[in-house]
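User: Hi! I'm working on a homework problem where we have to compare a predicted structure to a textbook description. Could you give me the structure for the chain below?
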Amino acid sequence: MTASTEDAASGPSARARRAGREVILELVFRPLSNVLVPVLRRIRVAPPAVVLANAAVGLVAAAVLARGELLAAALLLQVKTLLDNTDGQLARAMGRVTLAGRYVDTIADLVVNAAVFAALGHVTDQPVLAAAGFVALTLVLAADYNVTELYREANGTPTPQPEPTGGRVEL
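Assistant: Happy to help. Predicted structure tokens:
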């Protein structure tokens, strides 16, 4: 059986990953990713390449933001969000979900978030407020992760784990 992006992005398994609905994700980014994933899969783009592209676009967005080009930065951050959603869907569709890939994706998001908040601090001349915003976002994301895990545990839904790679580190 082959996994389609539809299988990877919708249905009971997608809903089991989260306690609530992420409306913008479901209405905008997931449908766009559903178009992008088959193209990337057909040309054999590896999921880690999409993670790196996501991080690169996010860092460029932060640099553009620091220069005060707000609209360009906002558009680049939307592209970054699309790629961030696409990398996981692509990994699931290709059967290449790994712990290392999840880790690299999380670190890329953290680095981009730090760069964006540093740029916000620079452009607004409020670095302390930007740092507080970064800390608040990081805490909210950590709480969201933990609440999701508790929700899964309470509802008897195990956290999806990637297949063991036999000791190999596979991105």
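For your comparison, note the following. DSSP finds seven helices and no strands in the chain. The helical segments are 5-9, 11-16, 23-42, 47-66, 70-94, 99-124, 127-154. Good luck with the assignment!
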